[in-house]
Amino acid sequence: MSQMNLPQPVANADSAPYWAAARERRLLIRRCRDCGASHFMPRHLCPSCWSDQLDWIDASGGGSVHSYTIVRRASAAAFAPLTPYVLALIDLDEGPRMVSNILGSDALQVRIGDRVRLTFEDRGDGHLLPQFERAGQAVGTLAGAGT
Ligand SMILES: [Zn+2]
User: Fold this and answer.
1) Helix (H, G, I), strand (E, B), or coil: what is residue 39?
2) Which of 125, 133, 127 is nearest to 23 (CA)?
3) What is the pLDDT of residues 18-47, one digit of tens each?
4) Cα dihedral angle (121, 123, 128, 134), rounded to 10 degrees?
5) Does the chain have fewer CB atoms within 10 Å around its N or its C terminus?
């Protein structure tokens, strides 16, 4: 998904640093200085303890698929040419869960529990959207063992 007239991100006061970092191909999440919880999407108060003492941290870009659906009928005309595409809930290695698309030629083979890695979708005018792609075979696979 890196073409056509797809919507561009709209930053607000809570998310402006997030979108600025995305333009640098970085995924930022917020972490609370008081309770240590990380969260996504960006908020000005910790959803665990309501502290306003929050830091921005760089996510590693690794995660796993909590769940997904394959969209075959787009909810907006701009996405219609992309169908079928994958909308997924990604559990980041740092803890927070985020909504993302799974991109890549093997996206439709996605399964719950698949490892994914961060990638960025170009939405034009320098806007980059954090997205994910399948990370391939799990580490430690026994495929080919004993042959
Ligand atoms: Zn907190």
Assistant:
1) strand
2) 127
3) 999 999 999 999 999 999 999 999 999 999
4) -10
5) C
Residue partners of 78: CB distance under 8 A and separation at least 6: 4, 5, 6, 7
* Tens-place pLDDT, residues 69-118: 999 999 899 999 999 999 999 999 999 999 999 999 999 999 999 999 99
What is the C-alpha separation between 83 and 71, in angstroms, rounded?
Answer: 6
CA–CA separation, 117 vs 103, rounded Å? 10
> How much distance in Å is there from the Cα of 87 to the middle of ligand 1?
29
CB atoms within 10 A of CB 88: 25
CA of 21 to the centre of ligand 1 (A): 22
Ligand 1 centre to CA of 98 (Å) is: 18
The residue to which tokens 């690794």 are assigned: 62
User: Average of pLDDT values for 117-126?
Assistant: 94
Tell me which of 2.40.50.840, 3.20.170.30, 1.50.10.10, 3.20.20.390 is the CATH number of domain 16-134. Answer: 2.40.50.840
User: Ligand 1 centroid vs 34 CA: distance in angstroms?
Assistant: 5
